From TrEMBL, chain A:
NCBIfam families: oligo_HPY. This is ABC transporter ATP-binding protein. One of its GO terms (cellular component) is plasma membrane. It is found in: Cell inner membrane.
UniProtKB/TrEMBL annotation, chain B:
Its main location: membrane. One of its GO terms (biological process) is transmembrane transport. It comes from Dankookia rubra. The chain crosses the membrane at residues 96-121, 133-160, 172-190, 226-252, 272-298. It is found in: Cell membrane. Keywords: Cell membrane, Membrane, Transmembrane, Transmembrane helix, Transport. GO terms for cellular component: plasma membrane. It is a multi-pass membrane protein. Pfam families: BPD_transp_1 (PF00528), BPD_transp_1_N (PF19300). The keyword Cell membrane applies. This is ABC transporter permease.
Length: 327, 305, 289
């Protein structure tokens, strides 16, 4: 395993009396695609915003360790963070329709990232923008540079967002549900593009999604989040083959697999909803919905290893599902 | 865009026509003009002579068509008091009023945009509340009284600025400040709400994710979008300010159109009053139309459609 | 290793708003009380001149007479008494103008908002025309041509200041019209006028109340401006605007003669605005500025 590019240990984010993220830990290696999955409200987007330093006013962030490329992000103020953002770490969002400024042309919005971080002339920046628009599969990039966002379709805008994120050759690209708002066919194209870029540019991608189909398609590694915690983290194949946290199992049971599910079979579902967690909450966040819950689940939950680079957060022993030890 | 402009123009023309009728009616229904012109000492016979001489004995509709036909080519008749062409009088005085209006608007924008941005950036803090309090104080300030207070303090006691007249640019500073007070509250509130909306938008999150400087995020990305409604309201406010400058011109003895109107009203010089009302209304109509078109030009989304 | 970035939490300043509402209500209530009780609380007759005792100074200056707390004006009339009677004029103008313009504007706005279509087009056109008319100038012209009187000022301002009532009544009626209980009223066979009065009006009343405060403040300021220009309330009535106009001749030597009525005017208008702002928050009337 290569050196960790992004190392997050014990990340906590609180808004008022709600704990959105409580002690989440995961790492992203250089050049890997790391997916974070979970239901909405589980804290996956907030974790990403916390890494970027983009949390809303009033949010409280703390962590045992938050480093990017060996730099301690906790020690950086807003000004110092802004020098990293858009340069070495970039982010794209779920809503391509509203994420671009309606008042400026595509070219102007792309060029300003480059001139901000790399200096140089606007002309050189526009040249780079045109080249990148071509790289993300936009035809006639020269014409697109002069257009306003409202003149582009959703898929095109997300491609523009991606190209804009690549302006300064970042080491990390955080993509927060980048395809959720798009048509299915466009989703596939955007995912393929991300995978291609990751391969060609050696970019690390932290992809946030609720869609396990996307995970299976492009992730090297997956972290499952639930109620503000990373409950399981493993290489993609391992996670799908040997899900070790009851929540992960439940999540996988919800996905119909052609051939395995006969028409008429009931799809799996997890009873209940994600609880609202207060800062004082202790123990396993899933215990109210878990069929294996026991009194000890209200105490500190152990972090266990179930093999190579496979961790999960549960009282149950590794391999419980296979040996039927669950009780 | 062209269709929008044409429709906007049609509405403006209809409004202008209505205002013409109203400003004509204004002087006709407000009593017997012949008696007003003739003065208190005139005999019944004098009044009849004047009535005939000014054509006031003809049917109202005839008088209106006659007046509107002349007004359309810029002929507002002759002033009773100044013994000069009304159109010339207004043209002579207009630069002073326009200068005053623009100075007032300029000061208002210079004050209200930074205040509104500051309040939005510090939304729901004491800074925000303070800005809103300042806006409310501005709204409650009687303009003519503020003018007098400034004359006493800045003019007489400190001697920084001339008290009245139109000799130099310094003469416009105090009236400009006073006039700006009428527009500052509205413009500040509009800038504030526009900035709050813009700052909460996705494209500002993108701008922050791009690592742009705070100045660029606030000044370039947020303000540009928040400024679109501010620009159109500023134009409308300029219209209100020109209409309201009569009070300030009188206080500071600035011989602009407002002062002319006040003199004419005091002298029962109805062709001038009528013409000033009409001209100011037409300027307002023109400004609001220009504001709508400018709005469409500033917003790329409207420009296309 | 542990680090915490505490970002400034959103602090609420609600107490400031509530203080504003209470302060506004107190100011307006006090002025109203003074206006009503004027004949019983004035130390002197506000119209009686005393040319031997002109421009007596107010209490905070040296040589003030205890008999004339706020001094006397250029004709030797007691300034405090004139100020108290001036409150009557301001409140009278403010309230009556709001009633007049409120009736006109609300009627137009409700009709336009409720019926939509051609009716609404006509109402919108009327509002547009009204906004194009310079208020101060037209009010001055009418008063100038007809001669100044209190009732005329009220009538003219009432006929001019209905635009914001119409705008707000129109937009709120549009919102209320589509609500379920209005549909239910239709279904139960209530007549249109009954629906307008029983269902629409009570539901837009809070918004109209906020507009009423704004317009009352505006009417008071406009009356003062008209009177100041000599084309509003006729002398010797003690309108605050007129008091400032009369004091203008002495203001460089005795600034307090314009200071006193101006501050009174400012405090009253500020109080009404505070009240309106507080009401807006209290009633959740949204943005009616």
């Amino acid at each position: 395993m290569s050196e960790a590019l992004l190392d997050i240990q014990g990340l906590r984010v609180e808004f008022g009396d709600t704990a959105a993220v409580r002690g989440a830990s995961f790492t992203v290696a250089r050049g890997e695609t790391h997916c974070i999955v979970g239901e909405s409200g589980c804290g996956k987007s907030v974790s990403a915003l916390a890494v970027m330093g983009l949390l809303a006013r009033g949010a409280r962030r703390s962590a045992d360790c938050l480093t990017f490329a060996g730099k301690d992000l906790l020690a950086r103020n807003e000004q110092q963070m802004s020098l990293l953002r858009g340069d070495r770490m970039a982010m794209i969002f779920q809503e391509p329709m509203t994420s671009l400024n309606p008042a400026y042309t595509v070219g102007s919005q792309m060029a300003e990232v480059f001139t901000r971080h790399r200096g140089g002339s606007r002309h050189a920046a526009l040249d780079r923008a045109a080249a990148l628009l071509g790289r993300v599969g936009i035809t006639a990039p020269g014409m697109r540079l002069g257009q306003f966002p409202h003149q582009l379709s959703g898929g095109l805008r997300q491609r523009v967002m991606i190209a804009m994120a690549l302006m300064c050759d970042p080491e990390l690209l955080i993509a927060d549900e980048p395809t959720t708002a798009l048509d299915v066919t466009v989703q596939v194209q955007i995912l393929r593009l991300l995978a291609e870029l990751q391969r060609d540019l050696g970019l690390a991608i932290l992809l946030i999604t609720h869609d396990l189909g996307i995970v299976a398609r492009i992730a090297d590694r997956v972290s499952v989040m639930y109620a503000g915690e990373v409950v399981e983290s493993a290489p993609t194949a391992t996670l799908f083959a040997d899900p070790s946290h009851p929540y992960t199992r439940g999540l996988l049971d919800c996905v119909p697999v052609p051939g395995k599910v006969k028409p008429g079979d009931a799809l799996g579902s997890i009873p209940g909803t994600v609880p609202r967690i207060r800062p004082s909450f202790a123990g396993c966040g899933f215990r109210d919905r878990c069929t294996h819950a026991a009194p000890v689940c209200a105490g500190t939950v152990p972090r266990q290893h179930a093999g190579n680079a496979h961790e999960f957060l549960c009282r149950l022993p590794p391999g419980w599902a296979a040996t039927g030890q669950a009780a | 865009m062209l269709r929008f402009a044409l429709r906007r123009l049609t509405v403006a023309l209809l409004v202008a026509l209505t205002v013409m009728v109203l400003s004509f009616m204004l002087t006709r229904v407000s009593g017997d003009l012949a008696i007003s012109i003739a003065g208190a000492s005139a005999t019944q016979q004098d009044v009849e002579i004047i009535r005939h001489a000014y054509g006031l004995d003809r049917p109202l509709a005839m008088q209106f068509i006659d007046w509107i036909g002349r007004a359309a080519v810029g002929d507002f008749g002759e002033s009773f008091f100044f013994k000069a062409r009304t159109a010339d009088l207004i043209m002579d005085r207009m630069p002073i009023t326009l200068t005053l209006g623009l100075v007032g608007l300029g000061i208002a924008l210079l004050v209200s945009i930074p205040l509104g941005v500051l309040a939005a950036v510090r939304e729901n803090t004491w800074v925000d509340r303070l800005v809103q309090l300042v806006a409310m104080i501005g709204q409650a300030m009687p303009s003519f009284w503020l003018g007098l207070i400034l004359m006493i303090t800045l003019g007489l006691q400190l001697g920084w600025l001339p008290i009245s007249g139109t000799g130099s640019w310094e003469h416009y500073v105090m009236p400009g400040i006073v006039l700006s007070f009428s527009a500052i509250p509205a413009l500040t509130r509009l800038t504030r709400s526009g900035m709050i909306q813009a700052l909460g938008s996705d494209y500002i999150r993108t701008a922050r994710a791009k690592g742009l400087s705070r100045l660029s995020i606030l000044g370039k990305h947020a303000l540009r979008n928040a400024a679109i409604p501010v620009v159109s309201i500023a134009a409308v406010q300029l219209g209100f300010m020109l209409g309201g400058s009569i009070v300030i011109e009188t206080v500071f003895a600035l011989h602009g159109v407002g002062f002319l109107a006040w003199e004419s009203i005091s002298k029962n010089d109805f062709p001038v009053v009528q013409a000033v009302v009409l001209v100011l209304a037409l300027i307002y109509i023109g400004l609001t139309m220009a504001a709508d078109l400018l709005n469409a030009l500033l917003d790329p989304r409207l420009r296309a459609s | 290793m542990s680090g915490t970035v505490v970002m400034p939490a959103r602090r609420r300043f609600d107490w400031m708003r509530r203080t504003g509402l209470v302060a506004g209500a107190l100011i307006v209530g006090l002025v109203l009380l003074v206006a009503i009780l004027a004949p019983w609380i004035t130390p002197h007759d506000p119209f009686v001149q005393n040319l031997d005792n002109r421009l007596a100074v107010p209490f905070w200056m040296e040589g003030a007479e205890p008999d004339h707390l706020l001094g006397t004006d250029g004709l030797g009339r007691d300034y405090l008494s004139r100020l108290i009677y001036g409150a009557r004029i301001s409140m009278l103008i403010g309230l009556l103008t709001v009633v007049t313009s409120g009736v006109i504007g609300t009627t137009l706005g409700v009709l336009g908002g409720f019926f939509g279509g051609k009716v609404d087009d006509a109402v919108l056109f009327a509002i547009t025309c009204r906004l194009a008319i310079p208020v101060v100038l037209v009010a001055l012209a009418v008063v100038g041509l007809l001669g100044s009187s209190l009732m005329l000022v009220i009538l003219v301002l009432g006929l001019l200041l209905w635009d914001r009532f119409a705008v707000v009544a129109r937009s709120t009626t549009m919102q209320v019209r589509n609500l379920d209980y209005v549909a239910a009223a239709w279904a139960s066979g209530l007549s249109t006028p009954a629906i307008l009065v029983k269902e629409i009006l009570p539901n837009i009343a809070s918004h109209l109340a906020v507009v009423a405060t704004l317009e009352m403040a505006l009417a008071i300021l406009l009356e003062a401006a008209l009177s100041f220009l000599g084309l509003g309330v006729p002398p010797p009535l003690p309108s605050w605007g007129l008091m400032i106009a009369e004091g203008k001749d002495y203001m460089f030597f005795s600034p307090w003669v314009i200071f006193v009525p101006g501050v009174a005017l400012f405090i009253l208008v500020f109080g009404i605005n505070l009240l309106g702002d507080g009401l807006r928050d209290l009633l959740g009337a949204g943005d009616t500025r």
